[in-house]
Structures are given as structure tokens and as C-alpha cells.
């Protein structure tokens, strides 16, 4: 988990921590450390077997004697340096000096295939086959990890004394006839070995699947730490359930469950070390980033849009169908079955004829944003319907979703994203609303569409006042809930134009700047807090995003968030 920077000002999940707990104080103490070092340091607490105990140890080691002020910066950075050293000592290693007899034992025990991907090998010396130590042999013979040293005490706090004793005894308990600890070795392909060494993949025992004889077979869940962007190589796993089998129990032990658990504990810190390396070689100068230019800036675009829509609808829809097939071949399917990336920098929504009214509203919204703001949003080109499909053609905007790249953004880039998003939200709120009897409605004055309100997908929902809207939100619940909701519902709010779904999938970025905001189907006129509470909706686990972006863009509306979380939780799952 990324460790946020602005914890003390957040209304997100971390604020649920007891402000007097050691965990909360430790997170505050490392807030000044730049990402990703802040997150690497935070993993000492987040991934410890006992996070509160690990936090107490951190504060004890780094704080001044009187403990009345924040730990000195030098002490925190020294702790970080020691922690990085310890992480790398527990990085899995390739066995390079095994005898052929030992290789044959492991090869036969593991069935001549990669234990993670099931890729088969032809022989025990096949190319692309690696024998990997889960924990480096001799790690506990390292003088830096002898009892009483700084690293030993740090490891003791991270693993807990009981776990450390078990693992240490296991690693030091060697058979004189077999100097290599066989239950610390397994067979992996080169890609699987790389992923395991870098903490991308780790295993946890499926405790609900009890094996009758765990010396012959054990079942694990394969889990991943995916922090680097999507374009980085990743291990392809055929299944999330991994069966570790011992095919030669008479001569070899099965993989050591405790050692895999230790690797699982270190996997996230290892993965963040890799993120740090990635950021070191791909760091971007955010000062060079320029605000994006909306795609309709060229006069040619307006002329093309007018001329294209003069063609008969059957011609246009035939072209759209052809382009959709080409787009599928070139770019593959999108996350939605109704959205297609097309050549020529275009996107297409194609759905049921029943969706035509929604497409018309979204096109109207995009034109309103185009005419009233400088927000880099798609530009609507055409809406057309046939007995078979309805279509919305729009331009593409540059950039990639900010979510998958957020973990590798520097604090400076995150700050710039906040500046950009604040500006765009401010521009949205300045859009003037035409006089109508309905205050809360879509951009055309009709019914809203909002995933937070399931009935809006089936009914024409619009409201003459915020009070009427509040009544609708609380009608399904009992009096006690309505009284609690009054904490924010009794507050007067301006009604402003709202995107309604500002989550990391719908915000595009490149080189530290927001380059586009997409997916405007939920947009409309809502109470001013709605943009903020909806930005929390469905992404409550993304603490770094919520704390350092959403809670920073919107410094108020904390009571409204508490009420909205309560109401949406009671209404049902996201």
C-alpha cells in the first residue's frame, strides 16, 4: 500500500486510525520522506506481522529521549537505510552451485515444471530453468544479523520474536548429509524467478483447504504486488490457486511453509524497492509538462464535424461498424463491451437503441464542457441510432488512466495533478445553469444518471430542490438514520455542474500533468459536495489517491462524506 503524505489533513481511511496509536504517530513521522522512500519505510509497519508493535519499535529507535517532538529527520533516514539493507538480505536468490544430484532431487520433487506457471522443462539442466532459494542460505550466519545487532532487532520487530525464532532455527538446522536446505529450494522459470525475487508474486496458504498430508501437498493462493505501470513486464499466471506437490516424499521434503510466509511478508517491501529503481531511471521533469490543448482547438475539427453529420445515418453507422471491427483488431477490447477505441484518434460508444437518450445527454454534456471550459475532455462528433444500435462518436484525449501510474508518480507530480484537477473542477462549477424548475438534473434538465443511485438507471429522477434530493436519499431508511444524515443534509449547498465520477480510471495523465477527463455520463447539476463524496465512492481502499489528491482538491465536506458513506453502505455493495 502506498503511504500518503497528507495524513493529518485527510478524511480518508487512515483517519479511522486511533490518533494516539503508534501506527498513526509513525505515519506522521515519515510524512516528510519523499515517495517512494516514504512507502518503503511505511512497509516496515504495514507489512509487519504486528503493525502496532513495529510502529512502537520505529518510534523508539528514531525518537528523541523525551519523545515530545517528531523524530529527527536524520534518525528517520538512517532507519530507512537500515530497513533497505534488511529487505535486500531477504530477497530470494538463484542457487548457482548446486550439485547435479541436488538438482535432480528438486527437479523430480517438483515434477519437472515451474511451480508457479506450470511451464514444463525437458531436463534438470534445461535453459530457462532456475533453482531458487526462498531465503538466502546463510542469512542468519551474517554478522550483521547476529543477536543484538541493529538489523537483528529490526527483524525481530518486523517478524515478531516467535516467528523469528522458528525461522532462524529452521534455517540453521542443516542435515550433515545434505548441506543444502531442500525445503528452501524450488523450481521456477526465469520469468517466474524474476517476479518472485522482485516481490511481484508471493504465496499464502489456503487455510480453508486442509490437505490430509501436508508433507505431500499444500495449497496456496498466488497473490501479486502490482505497483509499476501496465506497460512493464508482468508474470502471466494460469491460475490463482497453486498446488505445491512433493512427488518424492521419501527423499525430499516439501517446500517450507514458514519460509514462504517470510517471503510473503517481505514481498511488498521488495516490490517497492523495484518501484524505486524504476522511478530512478524514468523520473520525469514535471516543470516541462504543459497543459494539454483540447482536441477541438483546430478550426478543421469544427468543419469536419458539421460536414460529416450531413451524410445519411446509414452511411455513418456502416462506417462506425467497420471502424469498430478494425479497432478491436488493432487495440483489443476495452473494459466496457460498449466502448471501442477506433483509428484516427476516435472513440465510439455502441449500445442498445434504448441507450440513445443517454448518448444524447452525454453528447450535450461534452459540448457544454467544450463551449464553457478549457478542460481536456472528449469532443462529441455524432449521435445516431438505428433499430439495432445507438452510437456516440467522440474524439480521444491523450494520456493514460492515472490509476495504474499513480504509484510511480513523484510527490511533485502528484502536487501538479492536484493543481490541475482543482482548476478543472473550478471551471466546471462556473458553468451557468439555465433557469428551470429542476435544480438537480442532467445537463439537459432531464433525469440524472448516477451509479450511487441505482434507480437513476431505470427511472427519470430529477429534483426541484436539495431538500427534495435529500428526502429521496434517506427515504429507504429509518428515523435514526435520517437524524444522523441531518448532520450534512441541514447544511445549505450551492448546486453546481459536476462530473460525478472522478475516479483514477477516468482521469488521464502524462508526464505529471492531467491530460484528459473522460466518462461524462454521470455529469449533471448536483449539490457542491457531490463531486467530493462521489470521488470516494468505490475507491475507498486507494488511500494514497484519496489522501493526497481527493482530500487535497476538496478541503471541506467532511461531514457530508461521513453521511454519504453511511447511506451508500446501507444501500448495498458498490
Write up what this structure looks like.
The chain is an alpha+beta fold and 574 residues long. The protein has four domains: 1-89 and 143-162, no CATH class; 93-137 and 180-263 and 278-282, no CATH class; 299-395, Phosphorylase Kinase, domain 1 (2-Layer Sandwich), CATH 3.30.200.20; 428-571, Aminoglycoside 3'-phosphotransferase, Chain: A, domain 2 (Alpha-Beta Complex), CATH 3.90.1200. The chain is 41% helix and 12% strand. The chain is built from 19 helices and 15 strands. The protein has helices spanning 22-29, 37-46, 51-62, 73-89, 100-109, 150-159, 161-172, 190-197, 257-282, 299-308, 313-331, 356-372, 402-405, 411-429, 466-474, 479-489, 530-536, 543-553, 558-571; strands at 93-94, 129-133, 185-189, 201-205, 217-224, 241-245, 339-342, 346-351, 380-385, 390-395, 400-401, 495-498, 507-510, 513-517, 524-527. The strands form five sheets. A four-stranded antiparallel sheet has the order 7-8-10-9, with helices on both faces. It has a three-stranded antiparallel sheet with strand order 1-2-3, sandwiched between helices. A three-stranded antiparallel sheet has the order 4-5-6. A hairpin with a 3-residue loop joins β7 (339-342) and β8 (346-351). α1 crosses α3 (51-62) and α6 (150-159) packs across α7 (161-172). The longest helix has 26 residues, at 257-282. The chain starts with 21 loop residues before the first helix and ends with a helix.
Amino acid at each position: 500500500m502506498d503511504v500518503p503524505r497528507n495524513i493529518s489533513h485527510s478524511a480518508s481511511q487512515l483517519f479511522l486510525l486511533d490518533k494516539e496509536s503508534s501506527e498513526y504517530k509513525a505515519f506522521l513521522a515519515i510524512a516528510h520522506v519523499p515517495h517512494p522512500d516514504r512507502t518503503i519505510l511505511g512497509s516496515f509497519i504495514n507489512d509487519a506481522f504486528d503493525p502496532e508493535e513495529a510502529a512502537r519499535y520505529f518510534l523508539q529507535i528514531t525518537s528523541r529521549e523525551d519523545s515530545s517532538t517528531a523524530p529527527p529527520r536524520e534518525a528517520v533516514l538512517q532507519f530507512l537505510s537500515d530497513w533497505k539493507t534488511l529487505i535486500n538480505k531477504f530477497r530470494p536468490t538463484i542457487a548457482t552451485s548446486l550439485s547435479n544430484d541436488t538438482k535432480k532431487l528438486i527437479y523430480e520433487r517438483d515434477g519437472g515444471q515451474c511451480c508457479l506457471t506450470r511451464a514444463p522443462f525437458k531436463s534438470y539442466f534445461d535453459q530457462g530453468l532456475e533453482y531458487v532459494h526462498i531465503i538466502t542460505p546463510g542469512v542468519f550466519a551474517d554478522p550483521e544479523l547476529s543477536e543484538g545487532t541493529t538489523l537483528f532487532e529490526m527483524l525481530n520487530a518486523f517478524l515478531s520474536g516467535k516467528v523469528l525464532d522458528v525461522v532462524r532455527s529452521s534455517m540453521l538446522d542443516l542435515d550433515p548429509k545434505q548441506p543444502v536446505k531442500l525445503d528452501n529450494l524450488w523450481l521456477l522459470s526465469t520469468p517466474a524467478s524474476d517476479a518472485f525475487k522482485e516481490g511481484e508474486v508471493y504465496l499464502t496458504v489456503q487455510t480453508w483447504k486442509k490437505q490430509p498430508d501436508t508433507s505431500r501437498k499444500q495449497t496456496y493462493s498466488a497473490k501479486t504486488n502490482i505497483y509499476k505501470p501496465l506497460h512493464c513486464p508482468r508474470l502471466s499466471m494460469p491460475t490463482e490457486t497453486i498446488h505445491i506437490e512433493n512427488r518424492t516424499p521419501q527423499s525430499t521434503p516439501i517446500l517450507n511453509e514458514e519460509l514462504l510466509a517470510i517471503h510473503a511478508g517481505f514481498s511488498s517491501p521488495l516490490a517497492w524497492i523495484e518501484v524505486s529503481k524504476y522511478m530512478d531511471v524514468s523520473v520525469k521533469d514535471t516543470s516541462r509538462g504543459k497543459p494539454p490543448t483540447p482536441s477541438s482547438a483546430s478550426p478543421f475539427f469544427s468543419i469536419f464535424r458539421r460536414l460529416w453529420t450531413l451524410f445519411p445515418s446509414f452511411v455513418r453507422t456502416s462506417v462506425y461498424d467497420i471502424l469498430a471491427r478494425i479497432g478491436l483488431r488493432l487495440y483489443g477490447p476495452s473494459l466496457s463491451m460498449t466502448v471501442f477505441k477506433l483509428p484516427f484518434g476516435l472513440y465510439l460508444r455502441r449500445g442498445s437503441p434504448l441507450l440513445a437518450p443517454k448518448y444524447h445527454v452525454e453528447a450535450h454534456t461534452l459540448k457544454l464542457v467544450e463551449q464553457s471550459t478549457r478542460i481536456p475532455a472528449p469532443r462529441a462528433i455524432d449521435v445516431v441510432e438505428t433499430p439495432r444500435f445507438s452510437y456516440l462518436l467522440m474524439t480521444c484525449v491523450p494520456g493514460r488512466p492515472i490509476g495504474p501510474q499513480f504509484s510511480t508518480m513523484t510527490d511533485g507530480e502528484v502536487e501538479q495533478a492536484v493543481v490541475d484537477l482543482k482548476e478543472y473542477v473550478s471551471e466546471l462549477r462556473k458553468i451557468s445553469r439555465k433557469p428551470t424548475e429542476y435544480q438537480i438534473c442532467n445537463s439537459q434538465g432531464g433525469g440524472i444518471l448516477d451509479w450511487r443511485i441505482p434507480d437513476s438507471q431505470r427511472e427519470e429522477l430529477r429534483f426541484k430542490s436539495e431538500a427534495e434530493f435529500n428526502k429521496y436519499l434517506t427515504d429507504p431508511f429509518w428515523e435514526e438514520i435520517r437524524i444522523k444524515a441531518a448532520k450534512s443534509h441541514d447544511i445549505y449547498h450551492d448546486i453546481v455542474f459536476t462530473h460525478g465520477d472522478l475516479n483514477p480510471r477516468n482521469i488521464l495523465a502524462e508526464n505529471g500533468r492531467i491530460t484528459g477527463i473522460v466518462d461524462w455520463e454521470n455529469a449533471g447539476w448536483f449539490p457542491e459536495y457531490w463531486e467530493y463524496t462521489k470521488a470516494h465512492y468505490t475507491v475507498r481502499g486507494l488511500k494514497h489517491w484519496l489522501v493526497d489528491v481527493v482530500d487535497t482538491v476538496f478541503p471541506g465536506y467532511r461531514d457530508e462524506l461521513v453521511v454519504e458513506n453511511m447511506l451508500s453502505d446501507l444501500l448495498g455493495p458498490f
